Amino acid sequence: MVQIAATRTAAAQPINTRLLSLAALAVVIAVLPLALTNNFYLDIAILAGFNAIVCVGLNLLIGYAGQISLGHAGFFGIGAYASGILVTTYGWPPIAALLVGALFVGVLAFLLAKPILRLKGHYLAMATLGIGIIVSIVLRTETGLTGGPDGMMVDSFKIFGLELYGEKTWYWVVGVMLFIAVWLSLNLIDSPVGRALRAVHGSEVAAEVVGVDTTRYKVMVFVVSAVFASVAGSLFAHYTGLITPAKADFFKSIELVTMVVFGGMASTFGAVIGAVVLTVLPQALTVFQDYSQIVLGAILMFTMVFMPKGLLPTIEGLIAQRRRA
Amino acid sequence: MTMLANAPIQPEDEPMSPVAHPSQALLRVENLSREFGGVLAIENLSFTVAKGDIHSIIGPNGAGKTTLFNLITGVYKPSGGTVLFDGATVSGLPPYKLAARGMSRTFQNLQIFFNMTAVENVMVGRHLHLNGTLLPALFRFPSLVRKDREAKERAAELMASVGLAKYVDAHASSMPYGALKRLEIARALASEPKLLLLDEPAAGLNATESREIDEVIKKVAASGITVILVEHDMKMVMGISDRITALNYGRKLAEGTPAEVAANPDVVAAYLGTMD
Q: N or C: which end of chain B has fewer CB within 10 A?
């Protein structure tokens, strides 16, 4: 009897922490505008939000399933350009363009995933790197469609006769989208699918022998994370109104992976914090002028040396230690 | 060469008629071979495991016991020969499909999901009995949440049944070695297998822990699950096995009841060496 009761409370616990952390996120998103007193600050918050959405998706792949991708900016770029081209050039409704872009990226990721996810470690990194590079080359060279290296202008996002315009509006759009992304991610992790993904990371062979089709789940998470990036890319294109191939290139992919690792692998909120810190930090470091890149590099290096698990898991670990002491 | 010559042999009564075997064979290994870079780790091996038995595989280090496990469970593909499970040919199938047919196993070198809690490890074992599709998980369908809660309760019960009640919410990385060995058994049992393959479940355990594992295995067998056991602890093997197959250099050395195998001069020679 005692035992069953104990199990019950244990089962109830993660739900509570889950709801609590979601509530905390909602509060932060709701209160933050009070501190963001001008459009420059709002703009940085919005960019951090877009990065965070991509990172939450990417963390499912890297942090939870233990697979690497150095090409996710490519999926972000495809989403952005799908919206740019379909809406601005062909006059599609933005929501339709966003969905078609996401569908296209999903199918593309599915087709690519099977052959490349057979690879492990460095080889998987190389293959995904290649995908990103190919996407950015296509965006750069298909001048007729994409505007080439100069990029292209993108019309604003209109839905039900409403036009999303200005930093204030976009802040709320990105805030809601980030909340949804985090919600989906937390749901996924705490489900048979999420456990299968973590099992793939923990021991592929052990997952297989209890009936987990590891290939299927690796493909699934690759597609999901690519679609997250695509949706963020579509919205980003409408927000900035100007997209360039640089948004899809290798450096952007590395930046995204760095955010995930910096914030803390296998931690949804870690990914959000990593994205926010590494979007805000370069702006804050401009006070160092020419040395800002060096300072940023040093901060990254020291964080990873002294907090190899990343920001959030390290802090959580410290708090847990305090509590026990 | 022998491998090729033997490959086409198809007993007339297979594969779709399990009824044809009065002995109620759950697993039949026929002329199985596996080669690694020209070396035969398993050579032309045949044996049968009867339903409900505890069937041990013994042999000196390097005899091919773990390779045999990997061949049976689909982790390796055989170079020749067949494996029949529950009346159907299963050799060449991937492990997750064999798991769906009712086969599960533990590992000689622990394969724990160290990135999860203990109970989550066991819940992964219930994967086949849960909804593993994407959309219900993403949107947290109520049915999925309910089944997950049931799975957690079931997993906690299983952990209690192998003596791990106090570790339910522990993180796997914080558990001692002996407990992890049992966690693997609980995880394998969670898939509700017909056949459980245990690869050295007592390795690295002290005498008391060994005896506890012994009890667990007996309990598993008593619940109707057929067990194949690889173990070096001869006291345990002789005590609980219904049948033993002894291997050496990938070939069958002897087979029979514990008493028969223990008395077999070839087995004694393989373990202790010969005078000449």
A: C
Look at residue B189 and give its three-state secondary structure.
helix
Look at residues B155, B177, B192 and tell me which one is the last residue of a structural domain.
B192
pLDDT tens digit sequence for A233-274: 999 999 999 999 999 999 999 999 999 999 998 999 999 999
Cα-atom radius of gyration of chain B, to the nearest Å? Answer: 20
d(CA A101, CA A95): 10
Q: In terms of domains, do B237 and B252 share one?
A: yes
Residue labelled with tokens 């209690």:
B160
Chain B contact for A4, CB < 8 A?
A: yes
B107 inside domain: no
Residue B215 lies in a domain: yes
Q: Are residues B78 and B204 in the same domain?
A: yes
Look up tokens 């398993």; give the residue. Answer: B42
Instruction: Please name which of B79, B77, B65 lies closest in space to residue B107, comparing C-alpha atoms.
Output: B65
Which of B259, B220, B243, B224 shows the shortest CA–CA distance to B48?
A: B243
* Buried/exposed A98-126: b ≥16 CB within 10 Å, e otherwise: beebbebbbebbeebbeebbeeeeeebbe
Give the CATH number for residue B14: 3.40.50.300
Q: Report the complex ipTM.
A: 0.87
Give the N- to C-terminal CA distance of chain B in Å, as an integer. 30
Tens of pLDDT, residues A183-235: 999 999 999 999 999 999 999 999 999 999 999 999 999 999 999 999 999 99
Mutate to test the interface with B, among A16, A56, A195 (most CBs of B within 10 A): A195
Query: What is the enclosing helix (H) or strand (E) of B256?
Result: strand B251-256
Domain range for residue B253?
1-102+193-276
Closest Cβ opposite residue A206 in set B113, B120, B144? B113
Alpha helices in chain B (DSSP H): 2-6, 65-72, 95-100, 118-125, 134-138, 142-161, 177-190, 207-222, 234-240, 258-263, 265-272
**Do residues B97 and B203 both lie within one domain?**
yes
Q: Do A190 and B134 touch (CB under 8 A)?
A: no
In a domain, B139, yes or no: yes
Count how many domains chain B has. 2
Domain boundary among B158, B192, B226: B192
Chain B residue nearest residue A198, CA to CA: B115
* 3-state SS assignment for residue A158: strand
Other CB atoms within a 10 A radius of the CB of residue A36 amount to 17
Please tell me whether residues B2 and B98 are part of one structural domain: yes
B86/B89 Cα distance (integer angstroms): 9
Tell me the pTM.
Answer: 0.90
Is B149 within 8 Å of A6 when comparing Cβ atoms? no
- Separation between Cα atoms, residue A198 and residue A205, nearest integer Å: 13
Asked if residue B87 and residue B179 are part of one domain, the reply reads no
